DNA sequence: TTAAATCATTACAATATGGTAACATAAAAA
DNA sequence: TTTTTATGTTACCATATTGTAATGATTTAA
């Protein structure tokens, strides 16, 4: 399993260079030019480490990390920044980083520091399922549609989960009754229709994107 | 429980200074002037972290660490050394250190780096758990809500602790009965409802902040 | 093109679930 | 001992959820 690294760096050239080198090392990367949307991403994706510049537009990087820590995010953080005075470094650590690298930096060293930290930080296996812009967090029991959280009932959640787990098959009503309702002979086929309908309405209220298609005479599948 | 740090440093003045500062921070220290007897000590004592100079009489520090790693010792290691070139640093990490600090160093920064590494390698054995403005002191067995102390019973404490330890997951009543009550088949699900309710009333009597949410048909989680 | 079959949508009722208070019992403290 | 505290259980009510039936739309096939 690839480890995922999230980078917040407002200088686009630097961001690109970093992403290039990290990907070459075998990491997944997610680049951000500012702190906007980062928190959402942390909730939805399984991030192993953050690389954060301190001079960011809008918000100071270390303050941002401090608020993340207060909210309970415990992912590893490395500050990569031009703020290189003793007091800056101390401030950085007090706000919750795991390592502090000053610009200009040696890329090899940074990669080694990342490796060292990732070897220590416990692999948090937050299991997730996704399909297109739907992200199902099985532990938090949440659905995010294009980064926006959507509330689902248990039945709807189980239904969508089954659909995503079998995204390449058309699932018959019988199959769904067995796997989602756990009993195929107590309920009617129509029950599935209504449940699918309700699910559709929740994940795509204005019917702009077609997620679920019905296959005439067979059942339902993701499209 | 105090954390123990083993130091290998051949300059006696530096060793003393380091031990003095580490002890002031509340660590146990064990100083060595060379690598002799260090391995024996690692086997006998419970060492949390090693601070190692690279220029040592008899053996090069990073090579020594490399042999330790090969023998299966996995304690955290920080090199503190005058060998400060890029290639030296890279070599240090490749031989298995967790952090690399070059001489002359800033004592405050070193202490912070030690703390950051220990937070990852010797996790919360005696520390605190927190979520938003809730702080659970596992040693003192107390809860502070926004710095104000709130009395909890043992059950309530264990319940909140389990919730915070799994802050990103929805916990089923079954799971909670197993982990908090230690027996899932002797108690009923409703027992959890009532316990959660009592906990809610204690940490937020006027229901102004929502800490615990119930997920219909699934269980409870922090929100 | 038309009729039958299948599906979508809506409204409504039945059911399951959760919150709360009251009570009972056990454990701890006085 | 008595008194207090902690905690499990039960009952009752409010509400979220979900099955079903009714109705209208769509698709298929003769």
Distance between the termini of chain A: 27 Å
CATH topology of the largest domain in chain A: Rossmann fold
Mean pLDDT of chain A: 92
Output the CATH homologous superfamily of the largest domain in chain A: Response regulator
In CATH, the architecture of the largest domain in chain A is: 3-Layer(aba) Sandwich
Order of strands across the biggest sheet of chain A?
2-1-3-4-5
Rg of chain A (CA only): 22 Å
Q: Determine the strand fraction of chain A and express it as a percent band.
A: 15-25%
Topology:
Two copies of one chain form a homodimer.
Chain A: E1 4-8, H1 12-24, E2 28-32, H2 38-44, E3 49-52, H3 61-70, E4 76-81, H4 86-94, E5 99-102, H5 107-120, E6 128-131, E7 134-137, E8 142-145, E9 148-150, H6 154-165, E10 171-172, H7 173-181, H8 189-203, E11 212-215, E12 219-222
Parallel strand pairs in A: 1-2, 1-3, 3-4, 4-5
Antiparallel strand pairs in A: 6-7, 7-8, 8-9, 10-12, 11-12
Helix pairs in contact in A: 6-7, 6-8, 7-8
Chain A binds a DNA duplex (30 and 30 nucleotides) through helix 8.
Short description:
The structure is a homodimer of 223-residue chains. With 223 residues, chain A is an alpha/beta fold.
Structure write-up:
By secondary structure, chain A is of the alpha/beta class. Chain A folds into 2 domains: 4-120, 3-Layer(aba) Sandwich (Rossmann fold), CATH 3.40.50.2300; 128-222, Arc Repressor Mutant, subunit A (Orthogonal Bundle), CATH 1.10.10. The first copy, chain A, contains 8 helices and 12 strands. Chain A has a 5-stranded parallel beta sheet, sandwiched between helices. In chain A, strands 6-7-8-9 form a 4-stranded antiparallel beta sheet, with helices on one face. In chain A, strands 10-12-11 form a 3-stranded antiparallel beta sheet. In chain A, helix 6 packs across helix 7, helix 6 (154-165) packs across helix 8 and helix 7 crosses helix 8 (189-203). The first copy, chain A, is elongated and about 70 Å long. The relative contact order of chain A is 0.10. At the A-B interface, helix 4 and helix 5 of A face helix 4 and helix 5 of B. The first copy, chain A, binds a DNA duplex (30 and 30 nucleotides) through helix 8.
């Amino acid at each position: 399993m690839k480890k995922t690294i999230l980078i917040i760096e407002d200088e686009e050239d630097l961001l690109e260079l970093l992403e290039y080198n990290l990907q070459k090392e075998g990491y997944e990367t997610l680049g951000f030019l500012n702190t906007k949307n980062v928190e959402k991403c942390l909730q939805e994706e399984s991030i192993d480490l953050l690389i954060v510049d301190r001079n960011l537009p809008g918000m100071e990087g270390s303050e941002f990390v401090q608020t993340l820590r207060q909210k309970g995010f415990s992912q590893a953080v490395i500050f990569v920044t031009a703020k290189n005075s003793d007091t800056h470094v101390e401030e950085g650590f007090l706000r919750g980083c795991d390592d502090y690298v000053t610009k200009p930096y040696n890329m090899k060293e940074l990669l080694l520091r990342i490796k060292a930290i990732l070897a220590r930080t416990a692999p948090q296996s937050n299991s997730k399922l996704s399909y297109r812009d739907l992200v199902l967090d099985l532990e938090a029991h949440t659905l995010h549609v294009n980064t926006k959280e959507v509330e689902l009932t248990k039945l709807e959640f189980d239904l969508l989960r089954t659909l995503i787990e079998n995204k390449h098959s058309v699932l018959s009503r019988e199959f769904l009754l067995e796997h989602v309702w756990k009993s195929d002979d107590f309920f009617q086929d129509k029950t599935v229709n209504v449940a699918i309908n309700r699910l559709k309405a929740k994940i795509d209220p204005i019917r702009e994107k077609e997620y679920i298609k019905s296959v005439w005479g067979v059942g339902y599948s993701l499209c």
